[in-house]
Amino acid sequence: MAHERIIPLRETNNFRDLGGYQTKDGRSVCWHRIYRADDLSKLASDDQAKMLKLRIKEDIDLRSHEECSQQSDRIPDQIRYIFNPVFRHDETQSTDVWAELEKKMKKEPFVGKQQMIKAYANMVNTSNARKAFQRLFEHLLSLKTDDALVFHGTAGKDRTGFSAYLILSALGVDQQTIIKDYMLTNTALMNYLHGQTAALRAGHHNETEIANYTALWTADKAYLRSAIQALKDNYGDLMGFLTEGLHLSANDINDLKKMYLQ
């Protein structure tokens, strides 16, 4: 099977293999075991068939109840669906919150960026988010040899991006490489982002508003740094977050490395 980083499914933009990354001890992450993705609600039959060829056995959905109820995953019956929300409620699904945010985005620069920085810190600071990441690791630890899983959000960049950060960090991949994987979202979503920006301009939105929307739709190192700073502030370092925040033992982390490194 060819080693493709970005998996070319027709109805996704950001479906990626986490394999192939080198670890600090000279090993590499196994290909075709751990996938990260964006929205899986529109998958055509050929996309679903490809998921089976990838030996994906579990689909871990990190979205909120509101998001899942509006756009439920379309996956083959052979793949087990797991609802695992990082946030109990998606704030942008609240009419009042979204209306207020939209008002600010028309007039105030950096509102979109500030919103994302806050959301990333909340992925460390809220108990529901920590439980979701803990469950994700539990599924990784229970996966059978040669089987694969996929975890995803809506755009596959924030909840998904921080999940990938945690997984690759636990496996011993260096931070610079992990950040490159995180930022690869902007390449994967480039055509989508251009289309969205063009639609805003066609709708006569002002440049401040367009910049704020763009901040919501893109990956930014400042967002990831916000989460990293929050885990340092609360847990000392990444290992402290994994062990104290997510209750992973040293044996769990060793088992992860045995399962997913070569």
UniProtKB/TrEMBL annotation:
Which InterPro entries does the annotation name?
Prot-tyrosine_phosphatase-like, Tyr/Ser_Pase_IphP-type
A single GO molecular-function term is: phosphoprotein phosphatase activity
Leader sequence segment: none
Q: Which Gene3D superfamilies match?
A: Protein tyrosine phosphatase superfamily (3.90.190.10)
Superkingdom per UniProt: Bacteria
Among Pfam families, the record links this protein to: Y_phosphatase3
**What's the protein here called?**
Protein tyrosine serine phosphatase
